[in-house]
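User: I'm curious whether this sequence folds into something compact or stays loose and floppy. Could you predict its structure so I can see for myself?
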Amino acid sequence: MSFIERPRSTCALGGALATIGDLPGVVPISHTPSGCAGNLSGATAFGSGNSGSGYCSGGSVPVSNVGEKQVIFGGDKRLREEIEIALDILDADLFVVTTGCMTEIIAEDINGVVRDFRDDGKPVTYVNTPSFEGDAYKGYDIVMNEILNNYIPVSRTKDKKLVNILGIIPQFDPFYRGDLEEIKRLLEKLGLKVNTFFTEDQTFANIKSASKASLNIVFSQVRGISVAERFAEKHKTPYVVENLPIGSVETDRFLKNIGKLMGIETSRVNAVIKEENRRYYTYLQRTTDFHGDGELKYYVDIAVNANQAIPFASFVEKELGWIVENVAVTDVLSNAETERIREQYSAQKLKGNLVFEKNTNDIEKLFVRSTKQSNGNYFQDTHTPVYLIGSTLDKNFAQKVAGGSLFVSYPVFNRVIVNKGYAGYNGGLNLFQDIYDSIVPGRI
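Assistant: Here's the prediction. I'll summarize afterward.
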């Protein structure tokens, strides 16, 4: 029997509850024992940079609280009661019933219960999200598929300036809000309208307008692609797969690509890039004495999820000029997903050893083995000092071996993340500063 030692995700229900809880006007109803939603609320509220929870999410999720009686005699009646109460006392545009292992194993007729409410004109739908469906990232895909491809109707008209953003996972990408805000800011400078679905400016109207979009932008090689594929079939909206751009090099490329796909004048795209680069390098050029002459050169080990691996490795190599030693992708992936990431990593011409490893202890052993010490031999080539970009779970390696570290990948317990992001030009500046902020105190 295989297991994951110190996993960096929760079950599908955790991802579903986090996704639903951050969608504007949408409230989850957990058809599970009380412990499922309660435990998962702590995992997301604190594991995602202590970001807490929103309206009727986290510890406030309505729960059917099924127990031994419902296991024996069925929980349909209890679920019906919970939906009726939620509809009566909570303000929401849509209620999404989620399931857990217990209710799936006893084969509850959730579809029948929900169908009765929908036939009565009530805004209720449901998703199957037990742990055996997958991890938290799969939970995101399940929820977004249900809402965008089953619940909202097909639009007969398209808005040539509207795009949807997919693939950035609430809570399980700790910087999701800041990243989405920066992407939205840049796309709006190109003259586009943006459905991020998860930033504070969004409402349920953005969800309903999704089918009018002319393009879906998926910021992941593995997450959100199934949503975009089904969306293309149902709503006839094409999609493009992008890595999250961090810093000037990748953001320039990203804006040019989107400008071309959306038919935006090249002169406008170039003007935005020129303006953003002027600001970006105005800040960075003032750090050249410190960065260039301070002997701050590092070998880098990275242990992050599939969405972060290529963006962070690219920034470290192309913008900092540091040497990437190892990149460990920590997700549970299919063979096809693994190969897709390998192909992208190769296409980016990134150096460093790319591995796929889920167990935290094995990741640490890999990083330690590749850290060559001089052992008193002056002429031996050493791979030190080492810098770590990973999760709070990697703090043991960071404390024992690394000369500096930054925790960016779920779970992140030792930081408070409010609206910070690493995407785009502003995100590149944030990441540059955070990396060096973690090194400088130890040099004084």
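Summary: The chain has 18 helices and twelve strands. The mean pLDDT is 92.
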